[in-house]
């Protein structure tokens, strides 16, 4: 980890770099934030994650990479996993959240704490610390909560929050309405216990975050600062998240490293520069050079490859990243299928479309038909006769060709390809 002394001449300060990357959307004061982040002393900051699912997803990457970015600049992270707030749920605009059993949430807390580990360092002068707001919230009685916390929150301000206004007609429970108080109390407790001076989160959390800043002040503590990052959206304008459909999880059991790599490899040309600024740890000059090279050779997808490799390495490590890259190349005949692990091969074929068959395998024409690469057996024979069919990257030239058990990769898989780009997988069930 580096210290947070002023940058050398000609190099952006941390705050300048965050602004160039578009990572600061709102703040309690840019001058105060700059003084805190670029000053000679390390600042203690926190960011929170509620356990509303068994895994973090790509929507959380903005916050975990920001925590890493601030720690690399010399500041001290407090990573809060909401064992208490996860039992309540931040209000959604659409409807009341489903409350999960406490024992389920406790299991998710443990899994998320483990997932956060690769992003920060737990050693050194600015070592990260994992905290759980159940440690202080669980000890409070209802009377203590209402007396010591609730009295500092004007109801008119709470009603003015946009998400609350949206729910007033359809109804909002006191449980979700009081979520803001719990999050604000987290900031006060972390300030009191650990000297926390800064909170950040997604821009949809701005109301909760500023309530925390105001609450710390009302309790006679501080000063403290806060900022928000922009919500990460897809090309269609929807945000990343588990409730938006098609979630991409950080847990490899829920989204394979191969699928994670492919997700970033396939982002739109119009979005990749923004994502690189948000998530990459490459310096500004390298990102500008990469953007220029990508504009000159868009078909090479240089920016997407750089983004996919860097993020997959960060989340899943270099070994899984290498497997994902090798699989991408091997499926299109530019590498060895035999060198792929069974897990990586199956993940890649699942993404492409994996057909499971039992009993004796049909001939190659039948395999092409059953996999959906061609509409009929007749069409499959035509493709073979024209030299456009491949099994395990080997061209098939005989229209009546068959496969044997020796052709099965890892004893159960076949990779079928039509032409250069259309491929599918077959798994033989035993």
From TrEMBL:
Q: Give the species this sequence originates from.
A: Micromonospora coriariae
Q: Which reaction does it catalyse?
A: tRNA(Tyr) + L-tyrosine + ATP = L-tyrosyl-tRNA(Tyr) + AMP + diphosphate + H(+)
Q: Which UniProt keywords apply?
A: Aminoacyl-tRNA synthetase, ATP-binding, Cytoplasm, Ligase, Nucleotide-binding, Protein biosynthesis, RNA-binding
What HAMAP family does the annotation carry?
Tyr_tRNA_synth_type1 (MF_02006)
Primary location class: cytoplasm
Q: What protein name applies here? A: Tyrosine--tRNA ligase
Query: What gene makes this protein?
Result: tyrS
**Binding-site list for L-tyrosine:** 46, 179, 183
Q: Which family does it belong to?
A: Belongs to the class-I aminoacyl-tRNA synthetase family. TyrS type 1 subfamily.
Positions of short motif 'KMSKS' region = 239-243
């Amino acid at each position: 980890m580096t210290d947070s002394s002023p940058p050398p001449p000609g190099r952006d300060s941390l705050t300048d770099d965050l602004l160039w990357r578009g990572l600061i959307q709102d703040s309690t004061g840019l001058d105060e934030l700059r003084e805190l982040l670029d000053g000679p002393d390390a600042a203690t900051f926190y960011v929170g994650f509620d356990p509303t699912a068994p895994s973090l997803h790509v929507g959380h990457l903005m916050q975990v990479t920001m925590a890493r970015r601030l720690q690399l600049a010399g500041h001290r992270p407090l990573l809060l996993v909401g064992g208490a707030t996860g039992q309540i749920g931040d209000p959604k605009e659409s409807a009341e959240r489903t409350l999960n059993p406490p024992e389920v949430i406790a299991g998710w807390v443990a899994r998320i704490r483990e997932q956060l580990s690769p992003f920060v360092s737990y050693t050194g002068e600015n070592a990260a610390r994992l905290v759980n707001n159940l440690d202080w919230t669980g000890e409070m009685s209802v009377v203590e909560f209402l007396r010591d916390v609730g009295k500092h929150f004007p109801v008119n301000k709470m009603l003015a929050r946009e998400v609350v206004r949206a729910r007033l007609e359809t109804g909002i429970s006191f449980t979700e309405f009081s979520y803001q108080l719990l999050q604000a109390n987290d900031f006060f407790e972390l300030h009191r216990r650990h000297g926390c001076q800064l909170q950040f989160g997604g821009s949809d959390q701005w109301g909760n975050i500023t309530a925390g800043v105001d609450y710390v002040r009302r309790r006679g503590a501080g000063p403290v600062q806060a900022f928000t990052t922009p919500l990460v959206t897809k090309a269609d304008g929807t945000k990343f998240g588990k409730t938006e459909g098609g979630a991409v999880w950080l847990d490899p059991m829920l989204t394979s490293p191969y699928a994670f790599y492919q997700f970033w490899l396939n982002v739109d040309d119009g979005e990749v520069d923004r994502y690189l600024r948000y998530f990459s740890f490459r310096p500004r000059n390298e990102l500008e050079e990469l953007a220029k090279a990508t504009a000159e050779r868009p078909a090479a997808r240089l920016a997407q490859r750089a983004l996919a490799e860097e993020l997959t390495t960060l989340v899943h490590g270099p070994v899984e990243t290498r497997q994902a890259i090798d699989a991408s190349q091997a499926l299109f005949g530019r590498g060895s299928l035999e060198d792929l692990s069974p897990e990586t091969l199956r993940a890649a074929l699942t993404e492409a479309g994996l057909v499971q068959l039992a009993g004796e395998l049909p001939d190659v024409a039948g395999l092409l038909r059953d996999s959906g690469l061609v509409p009929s057996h007749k069409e499959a024979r035509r493709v073979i006769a024209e030299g456009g069919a491949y099994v395990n990257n080997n061209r098939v030239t005989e229209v009546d060709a068959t496969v044997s058990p020796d052709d099965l990769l890892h004893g159960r898989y076949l990779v079928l390809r039509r032409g250069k780009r259309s491929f599918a997988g077959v798994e033989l069930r035993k």
